[in-house]
Amino acid sequence: MAWFILFSAGLAEIIFALSLKYNEGFTKLVPSIITCVSACLSFYLLMESIKSLPLGTAYAVWTGMGAVGVAILGIFLFKESIDWVRLVSIGFIILGIIGLKLTYIE
């Protein structure tokens, strides 16, 4: 269950980071509310997950999910660079997340 909570925290982190682009310095109400709610939810779920998971593992997976999710969505939503170095780098982050999950022993 802790991994599911951590995955949910990562999704909330992606929503939080993306909403930063849309709230334009907290000048737009709805995106600003989404930013605040998703940030609080993300932190809360991370805190819940570290009750059962090691802090270093949980934090690395959480930040990795956020980085990968925002980088991939940035390519589609904001027409950000899609060069091979960027894609390989994203792939390394994904491999790191998978490695942390595979090496976790309960």
Question: Can you characterise this structure?
Answer:
The chain is mainly alpha-helical. The chain has helices spanning 2-23, 29-49, 55-77, 84-103. The radius of gyration is 15 Å and the shape is flat.
Percentage of residues in helical conformation: over 70%
Low-confidence stretches: none
Count of discrete domains? 1
Q: What is the straight-line distance between the termini?
A: 12 Å
**How many distinct helices?**
4
Gross morphology? flat
Key features?
mainly alpha; single chain; flat; 106 residues; 4 helices
Describe this structure in a few short sentences.
With 106 residues, this protein is mostly helical.
Helix and strand topology:
Elements: H1 2-23, H2 29-49, H3 55-77, H4 84-103
